[in-house]
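Please complete every field before forwarding. Incomplete forms are returned to the sender.

SECTION A: IDENTIFIERS
Entry label: holo-355
Bound molecule: flavin mononucleotide
Molecule representation: SMILES string

SECTION B: INPUTS
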Amino acid sequence: MKIPQLQIGSLTAKVPIVQGAMGVRVSLSSLASAVSNEGGIGTIASVGLGDVEASKTEYERMSREALASEIRKAKSLTTGPLAVNVMGVLSNADDLIGTMVREGIKMIVAGASLPLKLPGQADDPSVNLVPIVSSGRAAGLVLRAWDKRYGRTADGIILEGPLAGGHLGFSLEQLERIEDYSLQRLLAEVLKAVKASEDKYGKKIPVIAGGGIFTGKDIAEMLLAGASGVQMATRFVGTIECDVAPEFKQAYLSATKEDIVIIKSPVGLPGRAIRNNFIKEVEKRGKLAIRCPYRCLSTCDVLNAKYCIAQALVNACIGNVDHGLIFCGENAYRVNKIVTVKELMAELVAEVEAY
Ligand SMILES: Cc1cc2nc3c(=O)[nH]c(=O)nc-3n(C[C@H](O)[C@H](O)[C@H](O)COP(=O)(O)O)c2cc1C
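SECTION C: PREDICTED COMPLEX
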């Protein structure tokens, strides 16, 4: 198959691979710029960049400054397309989006709740807006809301299926019937749902499918099914440039299929992670102590939460994995070596071309 370019509004990627955002601090400027230099779109995750023990104003300031610094670093390392991801449930989402726009980011990806207000928050027509959805219904809802309130449509849509890593847009009940939600099937739904908006605005809305994409064959199959590109995250943890600590990468290398489990995260959504000592400790003790000077998530029920997810994710990213939550995709057990982003992208492109 001839590898197609991916066009998202004003941005062109030579390779139709979007590196999915990985918070907390797993995908920052190093990984995002490396992917972008190899022709894909690199994504910086904006969640959890402040010190979780800081006060509210301090946390927001630290997050803003750290995000600005990561964007500047990434831009100094690549001239290729870069995106920044924001989670709608963050209490400083407005502040982070403002920072992305000011720092000249031209693609904002929003997930973990439907980003119904995103065009109002990122009020600059030169910024390409890309919502993350998990169903055709959600895609339709976002597009109709944007049309009605802001008279605009999306520049792309990321469809995240149930095999993805991190927080998932599926209920625990749906995840028990995972075979009913194949990426192919969801893709067909989303392609149908974007049609009305494509016709009204006279432009193509590229759909980028992710969740369990591992090889060039997987990519080629998604492209043939109508996707304009794919989003991949788990595989990029197995790269030298991935910003996370070596202990986190090692946890992927050591994981078996059985170690990968669904958890109920304090965010209020299910998530996928490696069942490590931290998860076993939470299972045993029921609840860990939480100190929460600043409510980083609008949906977190601090009094009843089993642990502080921000602290658990920070612990994981700095290598304190026994006290950390290690998010991963369903295929993390298939990551068996650490390579450069250049090697990984070349392997994927060759596999697509050989398809
Ligand atoms: C460690 C990790 C952290 C993640 N963090 C985020 C995040 O902060 N925001 C988000 O929208 N998606 C997040 N995701 C989801 C990915 O961006 C991506 O859509 C998904 O994992 C793709 O599936 P794959 O990992 O099987 O390739 C995360 C995934 C992983 C593995």
